[in-house]
Design brief:
The chain has 573 residues and is of the alpha/beta class. The chain is built from 22 helices and ten strands. It binds adenosine-5'-diphosphate and magnesium ion.
Length: 573
């Protein structure tokens, strides 16, 4: 909440003006029943038409002030709520982008998305509501009670007895509400996560006829939301009736005692009428307070979720580290890393000179992509160090480090935009650069066949084949002439011939670029200057194809399994 308030501070002038208008409007509203009581008890008995007309005109004027004050103040309130939320959302978005990979893993992507959407929306509603009704309702309530005292203290005291009960109910609702709405938001996160997973795996789910199972598990997530919503709804739903009931009991007492006092001559009928008017005003105020508490519990649960992300510390900042004297361009020195459980990489050590190529091979889950993540400094190693150009990657400025790389990730994405936009990626590269990149990536021909550089891609590039998408991604990675080009499993969608041609063009046209090829196929890496063989996060071998064929059993095993020379037997051995 404090975070949200600090955002409101920027708008304090506008909020103050709205607040003042609101107070004026609301106070004017409170005087209406008093004017009415005066007219009935004092003006009407004089039977003067002039006096009555004047008082009526006066009452109309006060009503107008009340109306105008409220309307203008509400406009101010909406503006403040909207602008505050806009800033909050913008900051949350850039914070989300600046989170380290580990922080993102922990928060989970769906939860970050719903904080950006649902939670900021709830905060927006809360801010609007608090300014619109949060000011008005308490004034009506307190003012109403105070003015009833001026009308008749005895009756007012009767009414006042209800106040502690109302306060108690509000407090209980707010406390319970925050807990329940936080839980509801968490269930919503779970649902978004489920939908995302299913959406990504839609084809697999259909292919394996898992739709029945998936529907069932979605139903479970959905039911949890319904349950949480019901719980939150029950507590907030009974608030209004209970508060109204308490007030009604007070009112019944007032009328009962009031009737006696009118008969005794200590109160006039107009005053009783004013009392019932105040009652209506207060009743509405109480109902409004109930709504505020619902909105407030939901909004502050959301505000907490947003503040939690905004408060995350900046990680992965550049730090001073000792340099590497070995003269290698890329060097892993005894690197061990885990995502939290068992090590994903253990004692990895190798080095590559500038312009050399590196092939990384190993089964799924052997740690290939993790190794790439460490090189890009998405994560820091638990032990050892990663050097590029003699400098520890931890000592690089983030921008400077990422400029060195052109990367195609394993599950990389294309935008629903033109081919040009996809290759350029907002870097403002020249036409020649884009064309060269397309040629090196062997994408020239099919781009020409698809309306050229201006041809459009549909969402996720689904109007291009898997191999064509891969080549567009490679063109994008190449376009800025990076020092290091990383292709993580990028050739798996290419047929053997295209794959071979692609590698040839890459090596011929980019002699200064250090190419890192991650693959599961031996044919994709065997011509690299060095090949790193990974097995369960450990180095099973490092050397050239020839060397590895001689002294790396794992490499030979992979080779045989892919060349159909009794691979099965070798697995046993
Ligand atoms: P490869 O690319 O060789 O298929 P990865 O490097 O992706 O393998 O994964 C190595 C191991 O680390 C696997 O056991 C995988 O489950 C685990 N892993 C990968 N990414 C994460 C992550 N973000 N959080 C936790 N574990 C992960
Ligand atoms: Mg991988």
């Amino acid at each position: 909440m404090r975070t949200v308030f600090s955002y409101l501070a920027a708008f304090r002038l506008r909020m103050g003006a709205g607040f003042a208008l609101k107070v004026i409007g609301t106070v004017a509203e409170l005087f209406l029943p008093l004017i009415m009581a005066h007219m009935i008890d004092e003006v009407v008995p004089t039977q003067s038409v002039l006096a009555l007309s004047l008082w009526s005109a006066g009452m109309l004027a006060v009503a107008l002030v009340a109306w105008a004050g409220n309307v203008v103040a509400n406009r101010f309130a909406s503006k403040v709520a909207r602008d505050t939320t806009e800033r909050l959302r913008a900051d949350l978005f850039s914070k989300t982008l600046s989170l380290s990979a580990r922080q993102t893993d922990e928060a989970t992507l769906p939860s970050l998305v719903s904080r950006l959407s649902t939670d900021t929306y709830n905060v927006h509603n809360m801010l609007g509501m608090m300014q619109r009704i949060g000011v008005r309702a308490p004034i009506l309530l307190v003012g109403g009670v105070a003015l009833t005292f001026t009308v008749d203290p005895v009756l007012a005291l009767v009414m006042l007895v209800t106040v502690p009960f109302l306060a108690l109910i509000s407090a209980v609702v707010a406390r319970r509400g925050i807990v329940l709405y936080t839980r509801l938001q968490e269930s919503m996160d779970a649902m978004v996560r489920k939908v995302r997973d299913d959406h990504t795996g839609m084809r697999v789910i259909k292919a394996l006829s898992k739709t029945e199972y998936e529907s069932r598990s979605f139903r479970a997530v959905n039911e949890r939301i319904v349950q949480d919503e019901t719980r939150a709804g029950v507590i907030t739903g009974i608030t209004n009736p209970v508060m109204t009931a308490v007030l009604n009991v007070g009112m019944a007492a007032v009328i009962f005692i009031g009737a006696y006092r009118v008969c005794a001559g200590s109160v006039k009928p107009g005053q009783i009428l004013a009392f019932t008017s105040f009652f209506t005003v207060m009743l509405n105020a109480v109902i409004a307070v109930g709504r505020i508490f619902v909105e407030f519990s939901r909004g502050s649960a959301s505000a907490r979720r947003i503040a939690a992300v905004l408060a995350l510390p900046r990680e992965m900042l550049p730090e001073a580290c000792p340099e590497d004297e070995s003269g290698a361009f890329i060097r892993f020195r005894d690197v061990t890393f885990s995502y939290g459980g068992a090590p994903a990489l253990e004692n990895i050590g190798f080095s590559v000179k500038k312009g050399e190529s590196l092939g990384i091979i190993g089964g799924t889950g052997s740690g290939k992509s993790t190794l790439v993540s460490l090189l890009l400094r998405f994560y820091d190693p638990d032990a050892g160090a990663v050097y590029i150009g003699g400098k520890d990657v931890r000592s690089y400025d983030k921008e400077e480090l990422s400029k060195k790389f052109g990367v195609v990730f394993q599950n990389d994405f294309l935008m629903a935009a033109s081919v040009r936009e996809n290759i350029d990626f907002e870097r403002g590269l020249s036409d020649d650069r884009l064309k060269d990149a397309a040629r090196y990536a062997r994408a020239e021909k099919f781009i020409a066949a698809h309306d050229g550089m201006e041809g459009r891609l549909t969402a996720r590039g689904s109007n291009f084949s898997g191999g064509q998408k891969q080549r567009l991604l490679i063109a994008r990675a190449l376009a800025a002439s990076p020092e290091i080009l990383i292709l993580d499993d990028s050739s798996s969608a290419l047929d053997y011939k295209t794959d071979a041609e692609l590698r040839k063009t890459l090596f011929e046209n980019l002699p200064d670029t250090t190419v890192i090829l991650v693959a599961q196929r031996i044919s994709s890496v065997r011509f690299a200057d060095h090949i790193l063989v990974l097995e369960g996060g450990r180095m099973a071998g490092f050397g050239t194809d020839e060397e590895l064929m001689q002294n790396c059993a794992e490499y030979r095993r992979i080779y045989r399994s892919q060349h159909g020379e009794g691979g099965e037997e070798d697995v046993q051995a």
